[in-house]
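[Q] Does anyone have a clean structure-token version of this?
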Amino acid sequence: MTEGKPPRLRPVLACICLLLFSCPSLAQVSNDAIHEIKVLLKARGGEVGGVRVRLLWQARMQPVSDTYSGKEGELRFTNLLPGEYIVETSETERFEATATRVTVIPIDVRKPRSTHITVSVDLPARQPGGTAPPGVVLADVDLDVPEAARKHYRKGLESSRAGRSADSTKEFKAAVEAYPKFYAARLELGRELRAQKRFSEAEEALKPLGEIAPRHAEPRLEYAVVLLALRRPKEAASELRKALELEEASWAAHLNLGWALLEDQPEEAERHFTRALELDERRAAQAHLSLARLVYRKGMRQDSIRHLEAYLALEPKAPDAPSVRKLLEQLRKVKS
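[A] Here you go.
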């Protein structure tokens, strides 16, 4: 018997553990992929072309699509599922980075119809002589990429937007082969391979980014997620600590570092889960599930209940919400 954990509580703890590993893909959420987000980039007295724009599925910060703006600053993300999204623009020499939340909700869920949402994003100008914080994507990589590699990269983005993962993977690979130091292509190749659960190949694609772009936090986070999938939490923790040195205010890095430390260093894991929630409780909602497990191990049943309740308040329609509700009912029935 484990000290401090009564036998009757083990099934409940097992349920909490199981919930931590549920990570549904977008395809599991709905087949209603008919919606569109139109993005209009704006800036005072200046052209807005060439800005990298990413669309992320908020629940897991999973990339959905990636493109660059034209001169008019208008672009579209199509064939989307209902849900919460984040439109991100990367920092450039002229503009600060931005993040805009967008909710896609069908007008009538009983009769799904196409929903078109327009989002205006004002690009704040960088201050003259100002320096960007460490870890923000800057124009310090991919300056000498040959056109042949860029062509493959653009084709890869087009295939990714169209949902043709095999084609996008092929094009990103071709881009990396044409120019091995192609930061953006390696990053997207790693993401595509991770989405296909080809984790060893994703590791191979992402690992060199630590040398190609040592001051960027994003590739270290992506690499660490792959290492976690390969069940190498110690290596993942090392990469995530480096990412946090570059960008401490990354809720995703804190959340994943918590997962990397969960078994061997639970006290430190708890601090990182808490920090992730402080930074962005909505996007880091799953930290509540992990904290529910950790405090339950300490015999703090009421605190565990509060974390599960907080998760459901944030994600009432999450795919794992029914399982969390059942677990919550079990916890409430357990006698102290």
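[Q] Thanks! Anything notable?
[A] Residues 7 and 171 are 54 Å apart (CA to CA).
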